[in-house]
Amino acid sequence: MPKALSQFSITQEADGYVLQIEDEDGETTEYSATLEQIDDIAIAIEDLDIVDEDDPALLGEDDEERVEDED
């Protein structure tokens, strides 16, 4: 069973980026990454098309129209 994500951070270093992931047990793992890999992560998240209709700050223009149409 996968562990639950507690938090993560991405920091820029002189030679790339560091992705730090902490699980529910407080265990932290660090990964070095290129800008392209960080961009791939961002694109993968965007591709999920996650919409939280209860939080208007997270809605894009298209999502706002979809919620208004449902009312």
UniProtKB/TrEMBL annotation:
Domain of life from the UniProt record: Bacteria
Residue ranges of the region described as Disordered: 52-71
Protein name: Uncharacterized protein
Native organism: Sphingomonas floccifaciens
